[in-house]
Amino acid sequence: DTAVSQTPKYLVTQMGNDKSIKCEQNLGHDTMYWYKQDSKKFLKIMFSYNNKELIINETVPNRFSPKSPDKAHLNLHINSLELGDSAVYFCASSLTSGRAYEQFFGPGTRLTVL
Amino acid sequence: DAKTTQPTSMDCAEGRAANLPCNHSTISGNEYVYWYRQIHSQGPQYIIHGLKNNETNEMASLIITEDRKSSTLILPHATLRDTAVYYCIVRVDQGAQKLVFGQGTRLTINP
What we know:
heterodimer; A: seven-stranded mixed beta sheet; four-stranded antiparallel beta sheet; about 55% strand; globular; B: mainly beta; about 45% strand
C-alpha cells in the first residue's frame, strides 16, 4: 500500500501556465509538508500544514498556494509558472506527537517548465 | 537549527561496514541528530535519530560522541541498494518540525 502518493509523477508545461500537484497520505498523520528539490539537488521546505492549518510558510512566492481539504490531502497549486519553478516537488507527512520524528516522503513530482 | 558538515562523497565495498561521519559542533542541548537518505529518484527516507546515547535499529547504528559535536552513521553490511545520498540533520524534537537538508554525503557501494 502506498503511504504517501503524489500525482502526477511528471509534469511538463509552458511558462505562464497554472498547474496543480496532488498529495495524499493514508498513514493517519496530522501534518503534511511540501519540499522543493532544485537542479543542484538541494531540498528545501516550502510549506507545512497541521490539521488543515498552515504552520510553516518559508518565504515562498505567492504564486504557490497550498490547499489542504482534509488531513489526508495537501495539494500545491502554482500560478504563472516560471522557468525557475522547474524542480522535483516532494510531499511528506508526519505525526505531531509520538513518532513525530519520522517524516514519510512521497515519490516526487518532476515539474519541467519550458 | 545547528549546522552540519559532511564529506561530499564516500565509497565502500559491498558487504563491508559503511561509516558516515557528521560534524555538528554548534548543536544545542535539546537538539537531536537525525539521519535520512535519498536513493536516486526517490523521496528521502528516515534512517535513525538520537540525542546522546548510541542508537541501533534494523537499518543502521548511530554513534554520538560524548560532547555531541559529531556523530557517525554505521551501515553494518552495506549492499548495492544502500547507494544513496545520506543527510545528517540536527533539530529539536518538538512535534512536527521541518527538516533542513544540507548537501549530504553521496555514498557509493561498490561490488
